[in-house]
Amino acid sequence: MYFYCFMEYKNKLEQIAKKLEPDSILILFSPEKKVRNRDVHYEYRNSSDFIYLTGCNEPEMILCLTSEIKISIFMKFPDVKLERWTGKMLSPEKVELDLNLDKSDVRESKNFWDEIHDLLKNKKTIYLDYNENHENIQRLIVIINDLNKNSRDEVCGPEKIINLSHLLHESRVIKSPNEVKKIKEAIQITAKGFMDVMKFTRSCFNKSENYTLFEYNVKARIESSFNESGATNLAYPTIVASGNNANYLHYENCDKLILPNELILIDAGCELFGYASDITRTIPASGKFSDPQKEIYNIVLGAQKIAIKNCTPGNTFEKIHECTVKYIVENLWELGFFKELLIDNVDINNNDLKLIKPESIKEVIDKKYYRTYFMHYTSHYLGLDVHDVGKYYINGSSRKFEPGMIFTVEPGIYISEDYHFVPEKYRGIGIRIEDNILITKNGNEVLSENIPREVYEIENIG
């Protein structure tokens, strides 16, 4: 269980209940354990919505919440035989205490289907999460349909079904002080991991010019640091991409030999109490940037600084992306990157294709030719999910920042080694710098500020 702040979850449940339509019920199932192979299961992680509302990381749980603020939890009670294999199970007494519930509010999950008619009695609306536990959702819908067919009976089923995510996901956008604290703690662990791995790679190449270092060695080092510092999980699979591999945005193989003259892009984050961190740094394997690497790196860093400066209440995701794009295009233009190019998603090995020759910076931006080098968005929400939930546009307009929002700022420049239309010295360079930002009342707080970003800082790590 992730219970971390007494009454936090009870308060959340009460606030959500007030947003429900009159005479309604919310039913949320925790997902089942998933089989990896034969009788081996994947490590369990509850749905983010279930953790958000209850703090529980347990399978076979069901949350029922009514518009009258009646809370019921159905759960698997401890089984002595099973505990001998897997350890102590979550007790109903613990749930009662931490959610401030009466004993009668916490019941065995096997009783849920016996009680379902009573739970649905006189409810006009039901809120369900279609994204989780499809079998239980389908079974519930069948029951609702059967109830409504028998209109002469005393018990009628809900006439309206609402997707729960529309309600919950907007509630998750603004983080509570306790949620901010959890994310900060996850980022602190991640920051230590980055410092450890930066020192590690530096020391490896200082030992000997012939030292052998693979991407998976770097991955193991940073993940080991997360574990040693108390992280509960990885927030997502760690990316360690050296040399040209950094130009694959979600590079997965992690098996290349790292060469001393290459850059290493590390995109990693731990999870703590269910909350994620998401950091990227690009560092020179040998400890020193080459001049071309430094030129591209400083453009990315400059773009990030301008974007972060614009992360203030009332500003928008669209605004910071626009200023990021503008900075990157203007600086790459000065280096001659747009004299000729092939647009993004074109087969660069097709010799019959004609190169595009933009006439101005405005043309590059308007026609989005910059996507050849910067093809992703600048930011995404961060929270219980690494790409957290929430709308980016409201009524057709880019959403305005509000205090309590947490998101990433992560510009990048990616220059494939196959880009024959750029100067050779830049080919194979891929750089991304990513930090986690909290919008405050008067501006922002860079939660990952203590992880080196400046060239001189990175080159002088002890």
Task: Describe what this molecule looks like in 3D.
With 462 residues, the protein is of the alpha+beta class. It has a 6-stranded mixed beta sheet, with helices on both faces. Helix 8 crosses helix 9. Strand 20 and strand 21 (444-446) form a beta hairpin. Helix content is 35%, strand content 17%.
Gap between N and C termini: 39 Å
Q: Indicate the proportion of strand residues.
A: 15-25%
**Counted beta strands:** 21
The percentage helix is: 25-40%
Return the CATH architecture of the largest domain.
Alpha-Beta Complex
Low-confidence stretches: none
User: What's the main sheet like?
Assistant: 6 strands, mixed
Number of self-contained structural domains: 2
**Count of DSSP H/I helices:** 13
Average pLDDT level: 93
Q: Would you tell me which CATH topology of the largest domain applies? A: Creatine Amidinohydrolase
Going across the major beta sheet, what is the strand order? 6-5-4-1-7-8
Q: Which superfamily, in CATH terms, is the homologous superfamily of the largest domain?
A: Creatinase/methionine aminopeptidase superfamily
Structural class, by secondary structure, is alpha+beta
Q: What is the name of the CATH class of the largest domain?
A: Alpha Beta
Radius of gyration: 26 Å
Morphology call = globular
